[in-house]
Amino acid sequence: MSVMTSTRVRRKRVWRKTRLYVALLVGAIFAGGPVVWMLSSAFKSNADIFEYPPKLIDNSFSGSAFNAVFDNPEEIRFFVNSYAVGLSVTALTILVAIVAAFALSRYKFALREPLKVMIIAVQAIPPITLVIPLFGVVIALHLYNSYEGLILTYLVFTLPYSVVMMTAYFNSIPRELDEAARIDGAGSMRTLLRVILPLARPGLVAVGFYAFMISWNEFLFALTLTQTDNMRTVPVGLTLLMGQYNYQWNQIMAMSVLGCLPVIILFLIFQKHFVSGLSSGAVKA
Amino acid sequence: MTSFSRDAVKYTAVFGSGEPRSRKRHRSRISRRIEPYLMIAPVVILFLGLIGVPIVILVRYSLLNNVIYVQHSSFVGIANYTSILSSASFWSAVEHTLIFTVVCVAGQLALGFAFATLLNSNDVGTVTKAIFRVIYILPWMFTAVIVALLWRLLLDPNGVINYLLGLVGVVRTAFPWLATPGWAMACIIVINIWAGYPFFMITLLAGLQSISPELYEAARVDGADYVQQLRNVTFPQLRPIIVGIGLLDVLWTTQQFTLVWIMTGGGPLGSTQVLGTYIYTLAFQSYLMSPAAASAILLLLGSLVVAIFYVRHQRRLELT
User: Fold this and answer.
1) pTM of the prediction?
2) How many cross-chain Cβ pairs, A to B, lie less than 8 Å apart?
3) Reported ipTM
4) CA B52, B54, B57, B59 torsion: positive or negative?
């Protein structure tokens, strides 16, 4: 009797585990299948993109689509632009967000609450709403078709959530620590640099990655605030590629692979930090 | 700030300890009142210059007959608003945006929760879990442009999706998904869910892991089955997270432009025209800046209503 129930229990557990793994695999195909196809297409010749029946790896397998991207100075330039803008936005976001979040977390001042509300509310403004007037503002500031115009615009989108995330992180660091530092004679900047920042490193990583990703991926403003091909970033460059070569799918996919690599690599390195930082910002402001 | 501390050192050196100490404290109190404003000034200046001023400009644009593309513009009051509000194409864009948003947010939430539950299961090893987690996050790593181009390749009439559906016998001909009204919107919704669910998954997974196991134990002692545990423990515990990121996602989805623009450009026959593409087309293709400005203001007002709920929600979280 007891033997029978134990086999039944075991069988039930095996069944549950099988079901779980089947679900995991189906999910993985849904999530990863398109990505596999993107890689596969990037290594094909353009003639074989729509071959019948489709093959994951066919006879034309080669890196020629990647070579074509690397050999084209115009396409290299898209990457240079994206990196220049992305890294500047990341550095500036971290700097400005740290200082602002320190004020919001450690000082009591009259406008603190309204400012917090403003920073959260700003996230609600649709980019498509801003693009019409910003077009005019950027031209008036002589920043049209320049790195500076894009960098300033992107800061508007990276800063709100970054400040929220950083403030949440600083709030989680015990105030007693900086009071102790203050008693030891440290000024507020010293307290921030020596006591709080080392403890907030996961938050810094999260903010940095977030800012880079926003800037690297942005399309609408990159499209409207730049004009000449030598100022285009990767996302806009990709769409130019479509018109230019009349659907060179293998090159478009090769450039897409190259275009998402930095984000994926950074994510894999900083995964833990990013996930905890992101959720702390989402859960608590 | 550094000069302040240097001053402080100077003071102590000159006056020694005693009376100067109270002066030092007095100075420090004043500077502590100014300091936070200096610290937050860059953010405020940037927001005023690149959000505050542009919105004022936008309101002005919306009250003129046309701008930027014409030499002289004149004040027309709310004429742009009345013409937008009585235009069928605007309301059709609103309808598409609402359908798109509701289905996408619900789909991303459901899928994100399902994947988070799978990854939270105790029956899977840590390494397996880590591998699947990376795979599940993958779609989120792609920018909207790449997502759109990749799915255009997959959904091409001669593409791999039609081939696979042909194997199962669902599709016989080279079906043009994105050129068929009705199907185009369904495809864009699925793709947007594909690209956006990982954000829900990550945050919900963090939320699931923070629920105390004792709550489940107590529920089990009371004889609660899986569904009851879900309803009485999991959902109430996750509610603040779900509401927070749900509202954020509503904001993001109503503003979607890039994905739709590159997938279909709003077509076929306007069947995927959402507010984002509608406003962009008005402003940058039909050169009707003022009606575009008016509809941009209407979208902004709608977004602000959602934002009020979001801010309230975040503030309430902060208080608890």
Assistant:
1) 0.85
2) 269
3) 0.85
4) negative
